Amino acid sequence: MSAHNPIWNSLPVPGLVVDADDKILRINPAAETFLNASAKSMVGQPIWDKVMIDAPLEEAFQRAREHGTPLFVNDADLGTGNAPPVQCNLQIAPLADAPGEMLFLISSRELAGRMTRSNGVKSSAKSAIGMAEMLAHEIKNPLAGITGAAQLLSMNLSTEDLELTDLIVEESRRIVKLLEQVEQFGNLSLPQKKPVNIHDVLDRARRSALVSYGAHMEIVEDYDPSLPPAEGDADQLLQVVLNLLKNASEAAGDSGKIRIRTYYEHSFRMRRADGTGQPLPLQIEVIDDGPGLPQHLEGDVFDPFVSGRENGTGLGLALVSKIISDHGGLITVDSVPGRTVFKLSLPRASKETLKKYEESL
Q: What is the pLDDT, as a whole number, of residue 126?
């Protein structure tokens, strides 16, 4: 198998070939991205030093090589030492006409889980939006009557009783503001897609956070400067990042660090249930060192009205999810105490979009 074989280079899953001495012979581009290491640094290195698997594989691997049979390993935790382990399925098989050489294919279970959760969130969000809009409209009218009645009553009440009517008015107005947020959530227009320099968006969000809710935070940039333009609505993407930075700063409390990381993952592609799909190579991560999400909320955190904070509306992350979905992208979260990562996966600007944008200038 040539290292320049187009099929090998185009495989959408990470693949490695090891020789008879268990040293890495070849590694495809998807594996370079998955393992966050270059082929140059991996080739010639022992496989078990570079790909650490939380399972007793060596003996079974050697038997598969001796007998020329494939080996399948499900739900193994795979790590490289550079990042937390990821649950994967492994397919290992001997290479025909290459005695002793073995092929490793790695399928990330985490990616499959991301897709399943994303589809569920999108469906539940649509239902919740429709119900919320209806309720908001129906509740605002009687609230206006309650507020007006309380204000009329206050004209003839003693100072002591005025506190009660003031409370009615104040709470009614608070509910109206919440309902207005609900209506705004449902009325968000579709993105006006253009080529977007994602680092410009991130820089605007970072500067805004540092002079407001994130003033107590250290915000670190870890950017890939070669990232191509994204295809999206800059203002809506700014709204997404501001929301994620606000959540991260609130989670960290009085002090902490937020890292904003960007990188290109050329093998990442989303395929929907109807068979359509597109590459989502642009990756943005907002990482904080706060206490992490409550375990019981992690799978539902993008659902409307789910919040881990006292007095939270649960609309912020639902709005973020809706915007990213409208962009054809994907958002996921991975959280453990001391490290929470919100990851955005976005499409790059197409040649047609770039051409139209240049012609409009």
A: 55
Assess contact for 34 and 14: CB atoms under 8 A: yes
For CA atoms 259, 263, 268, 274, the dihedral sign is: positive
DSSP states along 89-101: EEEEEEPTTSTT-
The whole-number pLDDT of residue 33 equals 76
Question: 125 near 322, Cβ under 8 Å?
Answer: yes
In 10 A of CB 19, how many CB atoms? 17
Residue appearing with tokens 């985490």: 110
Is residue 147 within 8 Å of 173, Cβ to Cβ?
yes
Q: Do the beta carbons of residue 312 and residue 254 sit within 8 Å?
A: no
Please write the tens of the pLDDT for every residue from 29-55. Answer: 888 877 777 888 889 998 888 887 776
Beta strand 282-288 pairing with 339-346: antiparallel
Determine the average pLDDT of the residues in 131-157.
77
pLDDT for the residue 132: 62
Looking at per-residue confidence, does 68 or 304 come out higher? 68
- Asked if 209 and 245 count as a contact pair (C-beta separation under 8 A), the reply is yes
The CA distance from 161 to 168, in Å, is: 11
SS3 string, 210-279, reads HCCCCCCCEEEEECCCCCCCEEECHHHHHHHHHHHHHHHHHHHCCCCEEEEEEEECCCCEEECCCCCEEE
d(C-alpha 313, C-alpha 178), whole Å? 8
Q: Strand order of the sheet with strand 257-264?
A: 218-222, 257-264, 282-288, 339-346, 330-336
Q: Give Cα 347 to chain centroid, integer Å.
A: 13
Residue 299: predicted pLDDT: 61
pLDDT score at 80: 66
Average pLDDT rounded to a whole number, residues 97-108: 85
> How many C-beta atoms lie closer than 10 Å to residue 99's C-beta?
11
Cβ neighbours around 332 below 10 Å, total? 21
Phi, psi of 331 (to 5 degrees): -130, 135
